[in-house]
Amino acid sequence: MNENNDKERLNYFIVDSTAIMHHFVLDGRLKENDFLIIPELLEIELKSFESKSVLTILEAEGKLIRATPSSESLERIIEIAKKSGDYGALSKIDTQVLALALDFSDSVIYSDDNAVQNVSAFLKIKVVSQHFSIRHKREYYWKCTVCGSKFSQESKTCIDCGSPVKRFFKRK
Q: If I label 110, which of 5, 63, 64, 77 is the partner at 20 to 30 A Cα–Cα?
């Protein structure tokens, strides 16, 4: 009986543009009860004919769901991304992918994006990657290259002396 429930259970995979561009959503990994969820704006990031064709194939197979994340989930993602220091590294699509993972509980994100993976680690969202996986979550800070002042929020220049600021991560 338990085996039957596993077969009937729908699995949702939320994909960003890297999953489409690298074609790993077509590598024979999708089963009959698997569906891909993409943010409605994802197609804007896809420029090549090849990437657009992947979406067309998935849609023809009935495996594609276009969705818009809830405003509550978007706010939560922005909050966590600011705390981790990833906010400036996330595109609008990345933020939507992460928010959709909150809206669809027990879903999995397909992404090679470092910032997406890092924010996912803070939220304990499962991520599958093709080429690059982070080893552990990181918290970032910014440090002035001249006076050494540290900042928890992203900054291009030091508010104390005006010199350039670099991004670092906290060592554990």
A: 5
Question: Which residue's entry shows tokens 């657009």?
Answer: 52
Q: 84 and 165 share a domain?
A: no
Q: What is the pLDDT of residues 49-98, one digit of tens each?
A: 888 888 888 888 888 889 999 999 999 999 999 888 888 889 999 999 99
Domain span including residue 159: 140-169
Cβ 99 vs Cβ 125: under 8 Å: no
Distance between CA atoms of residues 161 and 50, nearest Å: 48
Q: What CATH number does residue 146 fall under? A: 2.20.28
Contacts with 139 (C-beta within 8 Å, 6 or more apart), sequence order: 83, 84, 85, 169, 170
Which residue type does 79 have?
E
- Is the separation of the CB atoms in 70 and 64 below 8 Å? no
- Shared-domain flag, residues 36 and 90: yes
pLDDT of residue 29: 62
